[in-house]
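Continuing the series of single-chain predictions for the mutant panel. This is the parent chain; the variants come on the following pages.
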Amino acid sequence: MGNSQAISGRNRARNRMLRIALHWQILLAMVLGGAIGIGINASSGWQLTGQAVAHPDESIQRVGMRRSIRVAAGELWTLDTPERILIQIHPRDGRPAASSRQIVVGDHRLIESMLADVGEPWPARADGEPMVRRVIATLDQLELADPEAYALFQRYGRSLARRWGDASKLLGNLFLQMLKMISIPLIITSLLSGVTGLGQAERLGRMFGRTVLYYLATSILAISIGLVLVNMIQPGANGAVLAAEASAAGNPEGKGLAVVLFEQVQNMITPNPFGALAQGNFLSIITFSLLIGISTILVGGSVAQRINELVDAAFQVMMKLTLFIIRLAPIGVFFLMMSVTATQGAGVFQTLGWYMLTVACALAVHAIVVLPLILRFVAKRSPWQFAQAMSPALLTAFSSASSNGTLPLTLTSVEKRAGISNRVGSFVLPLGATVNMDGTALYEVVAVLFIAQLTGHDLSLSQQVVVALTALLASVGAAGIPHAGLVMMVIILQAVGLPTESQGLIIAVDRVLDMGRTAVNVWSDSCGCAVVSRFEAGGATSELNI
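Parent structure:
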């Protein structure tokens, strides 16, 4: 009997040693996925169709395409490399010669540099007719601008590396969809559980004030860091280029800052709460949930107690589902990282290297210096231990580039691993995922000043202050989804008179930088939980559980 118990004890100890913590699983998956993607990119990232290929009149809809696209019979020639994609289309069956076209997909600066250095190996035309040449920044833009060319490339022109990357993206997006599936029910139940658990409306008001003060202070610090570093490094001062070079990326229709801010106020007050749920309007959902919670507190008595018990039970169910989905995080992160590294060429990083370095340094200073100092001296927590507790959420945010998608994992890490009460986490985090965008505001300041330097515009100190203030307000309107910062950048470019199409100069590396700034956004939200928790009675429930 004693021997069997000893053997059983040793087996349990061995299993505990073999069990890897979740944050290490995610980190290993991220490194492994990135390494495999780089290997695939290096070995299979180049494909040439050779001679022009005849294709029939057909409808094309590959897995992952939004809709079926009808293409006319003709001839297609493609060259797919990590740095650029060349597509030449020549329709047949009596279509006008103007339908023949050459399309180049990739970063504009890199394409022009390669055109000057090595040229473009277009096949010779037998009829000698000239062809229209277009430059488009990304495949997503190609799908909107020329659906026929996009469908033909997806069907006939992709390299093996791009096929692997697209398949990995589809699998990784399944994990993101599961996170998004639970995000709205989790926000509603966590907010209602936290607010009704406060018991007094005055406590909610104090918590809201502290949260807004923290978010405002850290956003100002982030923007200041970006301004200082972009003026010190001068990433775009190596030589001016014409802003027209980016015009092929399209001229996005921008809105005024007042329009965007008023739209945010309108989004807070939804005429149809159920419509807001269906559309995933986070501001409307948060506002309505808070109003229901406050009304419950004001009613009080047995009614408030029953509602609190109901929403608390629903929250426990949602947390259980969230924990189940989070177990799949290493798999989702693996495929998301592989999709990025399998299709991204190294050439674009060379042309925009100084710009990327400036953004990376600014994000690093804010995430590694400023926020840990706030944790140490304001929240009275160990920055290293708190970072370990939040690492699953941070790594997932980095790989997915979606703070809203990562929100369920952030809520779980804050409560289960960092020991912060649900009352604080359920209030601070959903609000932060919507309005607190430290990394996005910092990125927009650096990007706008880089564009100004690159296009030969010397912004004065007063104009840079306008950039800073506009970035602070615009970041509130930046949705927690990939590439939302590019949409908000139009507002800042307009505020200082820069051409809005100039953001096409940096769109090629936006995905990579988006990963970093999203991780900083989530890290700032998490640190905000720790700060607010310190000043709230009962804000911490337990020690760190790493």
